Amino acid sequence: MNVLVIGGGNMGMTYAEAIAKSNFLTSGSLMIFDKSEEKQAELRASNLFVVHAQLNTCLPAADVVLIAVKPIHASGLMAEMKPMVSAGQLFVSIMAGVTIDTIKQGLGIGKVVRAMPNLPALVGLGMTSFTASEQVSRLELAAVERLLDTTGRSINLSSESEIDASTGISGSGPAYIFYFMQALMDAALKMGFHEENARLLVGQTFAGAVELFNSSDLSPEAWMAKVASKGGTTRAALDSMDDNNVNALIQEAAYAAFRRAEELGKQTGGKEAVHA
Ligand SMILES: NC(=O)C1=CN([C@@H]2O[C@H](COP(=O)(O)OP(=O)(O)OC[C@H]3O[C@@H](n4cnc5c(N)ncnc54)[C@H](OP(=O)(O)O)[C@@H]3O)[C@@H](O)[C@H]2O)C=CC1
Ligand SMILES: O=C(O)[C@@H]1CCC=N1
């Protein structure tokens, strides 16, 4: 199987490296294309895949094409790709909000998987949600799942609406965690800690809490109760957050990302029925 990654930025590069290192493909069958010469040089330096400077030297030879450019570049790229694609090829898009229907129409093909990964894919701890058009067979979907799983874990969802929703939770989610970490770092610095110590206090607290969360089926609320002693320090902090409606505000932020994914979809085209 020949796989082509289009776009060698944060996510495209991450996928290309993860796929290359997984030994899922035979040597020489992983290709990457980026339009910038500077990026091509950077990609060549990694020596893990075949770097292309032109679409016509790689696109026709690909069985699976992973599209990893920004949504704003989607229509220009697809117009360029259209004369070179064929019906047997399978297209996997990780572009936020760009619908399956838009990709089918843009490329004039039928086999599309729409996926939403997240940045921890960089360290093999990614969370990717995906859904596919009806033309994608179970066998093809299983092969795509194996590709996606080289960057972490994945979940096959039954609708594009769920992909938009998962964008608001896991796709954009790492940034919310970093937001919270930054706020705690800011507080630590104000309390007089040096940057290095603030980083250690915050980073290890997050790492430990996540490890505990993943170690059992307990809810975050149940874990909060284990930290908070009656009349103690944690209760004071949690009461302050409740008084300031922090839970509702975080939920509203996740919905804002969900709505933005829907908006991006409306800007680029309509929705269509999909199967899980
Ligand atoms: N970053 C994240 O956490 C996540 C991102 N995504 C999605 O992943 C996609 C990529 O994001 P990200 O990797 O952060 O973006 P980047 O901007 O880092 O990478 C995109 C790359 O594609 C290149 N490019 C643009 N147009 C073309 C073209 N026509 N042909 C070939 N290459 C092209 C860009 O070059 P140049 O810089 O010169 O424009 C850039 O190198 C987006 O659609 C985003 O929605 C999904 C989940 C998480
Ligand atoms: O912010 C974005 O649009 C992309 C999609 C999810 C994470 N980054």
- What is the fold-level CATH name, i.e. the topology of the largest domain? Rossmann fold
Distinct bound molecules: NADPH dihydro-nicotinamide-adenine-dinucleotide phosphate, (2S)-3,4-dihydro-2H-pyrrole-2-carboxylic acid
Bin the helical content: 40-55%
SSE string, helices as H and strands as E = EHEHEEHEHEEHEHHHHHH
Question: What is the CATH top level name of the largest domain?
Answer: Alpha Beta
Low-confidence stretches: 270-276
GO biological process, one term: L-proline biosynthetic process
Organism: Parapedobacter indicus
EC number: 1.5.1.2
Catalytic activity: L-proline + NAD(+) = (S)-1-pyrroline-5-carboxylate + NADH + 2 H(+); L-proline + NADP(+) = (S)-1-pyrroline-5-carboxylate + NADPH + 2 H(+)
Walk me through the structure:
Its EC number is 1.5.1.2. One of its GO terms (biological process) is L-proline biosynthetic process. Pfam families: F420_oxidored (PF03807), P5CR_dimer (PF14748). Keywords: Amino-acid biosynthesis, Cytoplasm, NADP, Oxidoreductase, Proline biosynthesis. This protein has 276 residues and is α/β, with parallel strands linked by helices. The protein has two domains: 3-157, NAD(P)-binding Rossmann-like Domain (Rossmann fold), CATH 3.40.50.720; 173-244, Orthogonal Bundle (ProC C-terminal domain-like fold). It is 51% helix and 13% strand. It contains eleven helices and eight strands. It has helices at 10-22, 37-46, 74-81, 100-107, 138-148, 160-171, 173-190, 195-214, 220-227, 233-243, 246-268, and strands at residues 3-6, 30-33, 50-52, 64-67, 90-93, 112-116, 126-132, 152-156. The chain has an eight-stranded mixed beta sheet, sandwiched between helices. α7 (173-190) packs across α8. The chain is elongated, with a radius of gyration of 21 Å. The model is unreliable at 270-276 (pLDDT under 50).
